[in-house]
Write a structure and sequence with these properties.
- 40% of the residues lie in helices and 25% in strands.
- It is α+β, with helices and mostly antiparallel strands.
- It has one domain.
- Strands 1-2-3-4 form a 4-stranded antiparallel β-sheet.
- The longest helix is centred in the first third of the chain and has 69 residues, at 7-75.
- The protein is rod-shaped and about 125 Å long.
- It starts with 6 loop residues before the first helix and ends in a 6-residue tail after the last strand.
């Protein structure tokens, strides 16, 4: 006749089974916490990359705006005609090469290899002749050309490669709106 395990043996084997179940639950919880931590790090890394790209686009836009203003000063009387001839748009190719030097030793240095695109464009609109300029007394002998300038800068720090997982295209674009006065010009001819 088969003997049944005694009552004391049955109670001893039950805690060992519970210990394994508790250990497995602890492992599952720790794995979940680890997954959440890794996901947070990846998300933060992506946000830092987007912030960096956005800041680069802002600096490009600011430099483009200042370059157009410098061009207006250097061209003097010829600037309004230049703007008109270019359909009121000044592109990156119209700016001096020193503004954005895209060579290996230029503006973007080591980042040049990863730059997917740099562009800046300024649209000048609403040209108005005026003799009322902030900071200058009203004078009927001189006029200024007042322009509304919208400068847009774009920066892309990489390209997407379908064969390489993890490549990310981060393109950022910033736009600045400014009003500028170009001149003074002598009324009825003459120059600056």
């Amino acid at each position: 006749m088969a003997t049944l395990p005694s009552r004391s043996t049955a109670f001893r084997s039950q805690p060992k089974g519970m210990l394994i179940v508790v250990a497995l639950m602890v492992i599952v919880v720790l794995a979940g916490v680890g997954f959440i931590a890794v996901r947070g790090v990846v998300s933060e890394h992506s946000q830092v990359g987007l912030f960096r790209s956005s800041e680069a686009a802002g600096r490009i836009t600011d430099t483009g705006l200042m370059s157009v203003l410098a061009m207006a000063v250097s061209r003097g009387d010829a600037f309004p005609a230049f703007v008109l001839a270019n359909q009121n748009t000044i592109k990156l190719s119209d700016l001096p090469n020193a503004t954005f030097d895209l060579t290996a030793n230029g503006s973007f240095g080591r980042d040049l290899a990863g730059v997917g695109g740099v562009n800046v464009q300024t649209v000048l609109s609403q040209p108005v002749d005026t003799n009322r300029v902030p900071g200058y007394p009203v004078n009927d002998q001189f006029i200024w050309k007042r322009y509304r300038m919208i400068t847009t800068g774009t920066y892309g720090d990489g390209s997407v490669d379908a064969g390489t997982p993890g490549t990310v295209l981060r393109n950022s674009q910033r736009s600045f709106v400014a009003y500028t006065y170009v001149g003074p010009y002598i009324v009825n001819g003459g120059g600056q």
